[in-house]
Amino acid sequence: MHKILFSIGLALTACGTSSNNDTPALGHGGSGNGGAASSGAGAGTAGKRADDAGAGGTSEAGAGGTVEAGEGGSSESGAAGSTEAGAGGDSGAENTPRAGNANGGGTADGGTAGTGGTAGIGGTAGAGGTAGVGGTAGVGGNAGAATCPTSLLVGGTDLGSQGWLTQTQGPTAVSYGADYVRLETNTNSGASTSGQLLVYYPAAFVANHAFKVKIEMLVETVSPHNQLDSGAAILGSFTSPFGNSTDRSEMVYLDSAALGWSDNSQSAAFPVTDGSYHSYELSVDATGSATFSVDGSVKLSRSGYVSNGTLAIGDQTNDAKVDGALRIRSVTRECL
């Protein structure tokens, strides 16, 4: 009799234990995960609480969605999409009510949050960044296309602020009008030397490369030049203070009624001091062939022209009684 009662007691105790531990976990695992059977089964096996099992299912589902959404996009877009999708998955991982709120009141299924991660796919719009290819326009950065025409001097504006330097020996004067800069030199009475005033622009063009420069200028007065010296000159190459022998040979002199190369190899008649502005243009090609034009008409030419890239304009010499006064309205590096 005692054995029978002891057996019945053991049976009742076993049923009560199963009811208290397993049944609630199994019930919550099934409904909380919206049919995540494998997660529910895993929770039951581990003997975890139902809400823990639900969290495990949601976390795995969210993470899976996030990874796939990220991989679906481009490498850059995927990164951005993964971050946001992961955040959605984490919210779903905490508990069912939060997952619903995080997804704008969507269904309690945490998996929905993972679907939100597909918004990361929209991140493929980052591919629009390929518009950066337009940066290939930087190819235009080659010296010829990107730097011409370029204004080197604007009349009426301080020379120093525009990058111009001066080589001077008195008496000289620099003044400004509304649209020009005026240079003037003189010889003092009884003096053996005169004023020298050159304005020059270093690296106006690339040394010993083709270039073209145009100068809008009015010569008021000028003394007759001496060979290799001039009171109104244009130098396509300049070495301080007066120019070296090559600079001076290639220099263009402007007299009152003529112009020419300062080595006297060629000259042409022209009314330089007629009270008008003229366009003086010096052009040198890649072979060193040079032409000098006035108002679009070629007046001089020579071969073997070389340049150190510095441009100079004005009274180049301090020879007594070789002086000049001129107005420069503009200097422009032209396209070849």
List the topology elements.
Elements: H1 2-32, H2 37-46, H3 50-72, H4 75-94, H5 96-102, H6 111-116, H7 143-146, E1 150-154, E2 165-169, E3 172-176, E4 181-185, E5 196-201, E6 211-222, E7 233-235, H8 245-250, E8 252-254, E9 258-261, E10 267-269, E11 278-284, E12 290-294, E13 297-302, E14 311-315, E15 324-333
Antiparallel strand pairs: 1-15, 2-5, 3-4, 4-15, 5-14, 6-11, 6-15, 7-8, 7-14, 8-9, 9-10, 11-12, 12-13
Architecture overview:
By secondary structure, the protein is α+β, with helices and mostly antiparallel strands. The protein folds into 2 domains: 2-123, no CATH class; 148-333, Sandwich (Jelly Rolls). Helix content is 32%, strand content 25%. Strands 1, 3, 4, 6, 11, 12, 13 and 15 form an 8-stranded antiparallel β-sheet that branches. Helix 2 packs across helix 3 and helix 4 (75-94) crosses helix 5. The N and C termini lie far apart (122 Å).
CATH third-level topology of the largest domain = Jelly Rolls
Structural class: alpha+beta
Estimate the global geometry from the Cα principal axes.
Answer: globular
Secondary-structure element sequence? HHHHHHHEEEEEEEHEEEEEEEE
Cα Rg: 44 Å
CATH class of the largest domain: Mainly Beta
Task: Report the average pLDDT across residues.
Answer: 70
Strand portion = 25-35%
What's the helix count? 8
Label the CATH architecture of the largest domain: Sandwich
Most strands sheet: 8 strands, antiparallel
- Number of individual domains: 2
